[in-house]
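can u pls check wat happens w/ guanosine-5'-triphosphate
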Amino acid sequence: MLDQSTNRPELPPEIARRRTFAIISHPDAGKTTLTEKFLLYGGAIQMAGQVRAKGESRRTRSDYMKMEQERGISVSASAMSFDFDTYRFNLVDTPGHSDFSEDTYRTLTAVDAAVMVIDGAKGIESQTQKLFEVCRLRDLPILTFCNKMDRESRDTFEIIDEIQENLAIDVTPASWPIGVGRDFIGCYDLLRDRLELMDRADRNKVAESISINGLDDPKLAEHVPADLLEKLREDVEMVRELMPPMDAKALLEGTLTPIWFGSAINSFGVKELMDGIANYGPEPQPQPATPRAMLPEETKVAGFVFKVQANMDAKHRDRVAFVRLASGHFRRGMKLTHVRSKKVISISNPVLFLAADRELAEEAWAGDIIGIPNHGQLRIGDTLTEGEALRVTGIPSFAPELLQTVRAGDPMKAKHLEKALMQFAEEGAAKVFKPMIGSGFIVGVVGALQFEVLASRIEQEYNLPVRFEASQFTSARWVAGPKEAVDKFVSENKGHMATDNDGDSVYLTRLQWDIDRVVRDYPDVKLTATKEMML
Ligand SMILES: Nc1nc2c(ncn2[C@@H]2O[C@H](COP(=O)(O)OP(=O)(O)OP(=O)(O)O)[C@@H](O)[C@H]2O)c(=O)[nH]1
Ligand SMILES: [Mg+2]
């Protein structure tokens, strides 16, 4: 049966109730804080933690790495599955900092929608704009949360205008803030005609909500000071005249974004946003793949790896592949074909995530994100199916832009270091090159903060202090072409050659001039800044 509004087959109820989305924004807008409140309202945790926790206070679940906690920033995407109402949410909290954007971009290939968080005082910031464009390329539906309304914020019409202008998307307010900064008392819920009042005293409490019979209801005056009420009535009149109404279809097509106003830290506006995701957010969607897309309504199981993380939990010391199930009903113990190697693997210990915590998953459905512990067989971009040779497409790989040499503090530990680096390379956390001549390793990343994360993780997870130093090289290019031409090129340029963690040849240099020379002198050899992930 076709669903009337979307023209797609009606999904089994277990799949239709799934909402899989990422939370994205410029750094510091409040993604992790919002995520924590989602968990609270979903009943997955009893008490919310804080990003910048002091003393005995509790920390957030999604920033579980040591460096995240020390600095109060997220450096790695973190997945969480929990029930909300009759729905199952699969949420991924992403890092905002551009140095970690490869992780965020990959996450966006594994979700059906994005929640874009903006800071009410700052509006659209550079990283918001970039991430939005990535969502646009994939036609991802976007729901917007304007956060930090408890503080001095910009004019509401101005914020909405800015989203419309800069991001070229229609905006419909789902709620409307009443008062600004210290006078902010709550929101008027435009979708349900309700007044939502914020409780500043108790940050973990669900806001008080008062049913209202339209804006002329005398009950409003009991809760809203006269001057704010007058402004609210004027504003809402203007909104209803000038702005498009909520339209589920336009949201699903990615041409309209509803915006909620709130304060994540005060748990305000969060429940309304969650209701919005449940009621208007997309069901699991088809996943681009070759030679054909994977469809959520198919009964056969298919899924793909969009992230790999080593040592998530010191107790387990293994690698976990984050798999987005794209179709079917998965059961523990299933045998699935690993399409890249054509080997059949038995999935005996699949897990569902709650950030660093995990629990054994007896079953999962299209839309879910599950973890598969493994010893390195599963790589980013890999596809698992019940036999068909499908391959997921569109998982990005960024060119390394910064290179540094890395050495173990203790030279006797070089072998240990090699092992650690190989694991991080397989995780996709860095590119690792072993030069043909000389010792040591060269690490390539997209942003400088990644070096710090690596140093901290190598020390933390492998008990191995390391030093990163300037490298004589600044660029890396993968070498491709007929074997004979490549061999000749390699033997004539040994001082520039290295191998990556798969043993593939990489040309290292500091001069564009060198690259131009190779192109001229070795016409059969091709140099590329990124390596295709699925070979
Ligand atoms: N005043 C106020 N502060 C908030 C609110 N929500 C979050 N914050 C604070 O803003 C800071 C950043 O919050 P995070 O949740 O870490 O932001 P993030 O978007 O996850 O940051 P990255 O992951 O590093 O990109 C923290 O100090 C939070 O306590 C809010 O509603 N009001
Ligand atoms: Mg964060």
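Residues 31-32, 63, 74, 93 surround magnesium ion (ligand 2) (CB under 6 Å).
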